[in-house]
């Protein structure tokens, strides 16, 4: 792999932190803490590693924010971006215009998408893509002659972005509390969380039961009012919630039965993360719309969009103008970055590697962490993994003793990771990783050793 050897000059950390605290309003950050601790300044990346302004090397177990699939420092993406900026840095796709990289990428995405997808609508982010879904679903049903079918069903603890529609589709109570969300026309059902909610059931039975909540909700609202159901194949920000195998086929069956459109939000699971180009293929989802972002450019520049199935595309296109779009829809520079990113994924066979080699190896090595006294469950799917910290282990999964959430044990563990050069995210007591797809076997060993070391430190703290 060709990476960029550029090593930047080290900035004055304290001065930067002071400016940061004075001027930079960060996303999802508690600013009362930022002022007392100061931000960590990340200055460089190469492969699966980052460096901060103090020169400390960090293993990035989260691929940035679930996005740097091809790893950091790819000179060829930088060159593709540079070339496109020289040739045409911007033009829009409104009013019958187009540009070369946007067209080439659309054709490439149609080739990579599951069968029955020939069209893409571009956005600048995953949130905008989910807003697009809301508008497109409503437009579709209007054109079909069912203007009442505007309700979209989502799930609690889902994450679908931060715009008004994205945050409403999401099921994060902390987000709904700020600003009176969800907006009208979006309702939620439970998530398929076996560890939390499957007490006394097999995973298979629980999967069917959780899918049944969708049918119940459709009947409660009236099928003639429901336009779509949206879900992440695996809930990422909610804590890597991997559904039982029975869940998605049953959701698909229910959507078909009531003619409800099915939206797979693949912002995290797209572009190889689960060992398939799209997670929908792994779970047999067969959606009508697919949201993507992040991995399409490996986060090098912002790009998102919706893959639109032939069923929906035909109606929307036959309907004339869809009065929707963004200045940066089909941005030539972002599309050029995506084309090079996808070329790398194909050339290095990253999807196949995750499916056949590194994914199974991560599963095997991660499973070994289940023997640790603090770990209740350790599970993976492709290149996402999660483990639950528990106070007491037990032979039966649901008999394990939980920590009082007020103790913040997950954050204690995350603190040890942070101090020991490892990025792992805490969602309550669930510790999660989603490493760059380029991570090899030796690096998986290194990551698992680091995690084990930090679990030992956490155990010392809670004992
Ligand atoms: N959908 C999912 C599943 C996500 O995980 C995210 C971001 O993490 C989004 C949508 C929103 O994407 P963005 O942050 O690009 O708006």
From TrEMBL:
<dbReference type="GO" id="GO:0009102">
    <property type="term" value="P:biotin biosynthetic process"/>
</dbReference>
<dbReference type="InterPro" id="IPR015421">
    <property type="entry name" value="PyrdxlP-dep_Trfase_major"/>
</dbReference>
<dbReference type="Pfam" id="PF00202">
    <property type="entry name" value="Aminotran_3"/>
</dbReference>
<dbReference type="InterPro" id="IPR015422">
    <property type="entry name" value="PyrdxlP-dep_Trfase_small"/>
</dbReference>
<dbReference type="GO" id="GO:0030170">
    <property type="term" value="F:pyridoxal phosphate binding"/>
</dbReference>
<dbReference type="GO" id="GO:0004015">
    <property type="term" value="F:adenosylmethionine-8-amino-7-oxononanoate transaminase activity"/>
</dbReference>
<dbReference type="InterPro" id="IPR015424">
    <property type="entry name" value="PyrdxlP-dep_Trfase"/>
</dbReference>
<dbReference type="InterPro" id="IPR049704">
    <property type="entry name" value="Aminotrans_3_PPA_site"/>
</dbReference>
<keyword id="KW-0808">Transferase</keyword>
<dbReference type="GO" id="GO:0009448">
    <property type="term" value="P:gamma-aminobutyric acid metabolic process"/>
</dbReference>
<comment type="similarity">
    <text>Belongs to the class-III pyridoxal-phosphate-dependent aminotransferase family.</text>
</comment>
<keyword id="KW-0032">Aminotransferase</keyword>
<protein>
    <submittedName>
        <fullName>Putrescine aminotransferase</fullName>
        <ecNumber>2.6.1.-</ecNumber>
    </submittedName>
</protein>
<dbReference type="InterPro" id="IPR005814">
    <property type="entry name" value="Aminotrans_3"/>
</dbReference>
<keyword id="KW-0663">Pyridoxal phosphate</keyword>
């Amino acid at each position: 792999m060709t990476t960029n050897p550029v090593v930047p000059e080290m900035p004055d950390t304290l001065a930067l932190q002071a400016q940061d605290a004075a001027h930079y309003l960060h996303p999802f950050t508690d600013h009362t803490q930022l002022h007392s601790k100061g931000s960590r300044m990340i200055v460089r990346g190469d492969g699966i590693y980052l460096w901060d302004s103090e020169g400390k090397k960090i293993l990035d177990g989260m691929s940035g924010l679930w996005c740097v699939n091809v790893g950091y420092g790819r000179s060829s993406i930088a060159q593709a971006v540079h070339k496109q900026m020289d040739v045409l840095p911007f033009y829009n796709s409104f009013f019958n215009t187009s540009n070369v990289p946007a067209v080439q990428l659309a054709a490439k995405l149609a080739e990579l998408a599951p069968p029955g997808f020939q069209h893409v609508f571009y956005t600048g982010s995953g949130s905008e893509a989910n807003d697009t879904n809301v508008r497109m679903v409503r437009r579709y049903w209007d054109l079909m002659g069912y203007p009442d079918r505007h309700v979209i069903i989502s799930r609690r603890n889902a994450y679908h972005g931060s715009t008004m529609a994205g945050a409403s589709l999401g099921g994060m109570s902390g987000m709904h509390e700020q600003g009176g969300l969800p907006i009208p026309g979006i309702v939620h059902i439970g998530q398929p969380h076996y560890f939390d909610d499957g007490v006394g059931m097999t995973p298979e039975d629980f999967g069917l039961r959780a899918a049944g909540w969708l049918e119940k909700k459709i009947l409660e609202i009236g099928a003639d009012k429901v336009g779509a159901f949206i879900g992440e194949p695996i809930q990422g920000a909610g804590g890597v919630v991997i559904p039982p195998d029975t869940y998605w086929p049953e959701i698909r069956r229910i959507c078909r039965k009531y003619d409800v459109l099915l939206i797979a939000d693949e912002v995290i699971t797209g572009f190889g993360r689960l060992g398939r180009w799209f997670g929908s293929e792994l779970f047999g989802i067969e959606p009508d719309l697919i949201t993507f972002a992040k991995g399409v450019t490996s986060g090098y520049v912002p790009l998102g969009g919706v893959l639109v199935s032939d069923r929906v595309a035909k109606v929307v296109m036959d309907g004339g103008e869809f009065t929707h779009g963004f200045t940066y829809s089909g941005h030539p520079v972002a599309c050029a970055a995506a084309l090079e990113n996808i070329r790398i994924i194909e050339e290095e066979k990253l999807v196949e590697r995750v499916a056949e080699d590194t994914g199974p190896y991560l599963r095997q090595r991660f499973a070994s962490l289940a023997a640790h006294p603090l770990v209740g469950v350790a599970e993976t799917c492709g290149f996402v993994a999660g483990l639950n910290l528990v106070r007491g282990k037990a032979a039966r999964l649901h008999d394990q003793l939980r920590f009082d959430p007020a103790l913040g044990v997950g954050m204690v563990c995350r603190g040890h990771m942070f101090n020991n050069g490892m990025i792992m995210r805490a969602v309550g007591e669930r510790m999660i990783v989603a490493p760059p797809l380029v991570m090899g076997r030796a690096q998986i060993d290194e990551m698992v050793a680091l995690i084990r070391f930090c679990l030992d430190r956490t155990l010392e703290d809670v004992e």
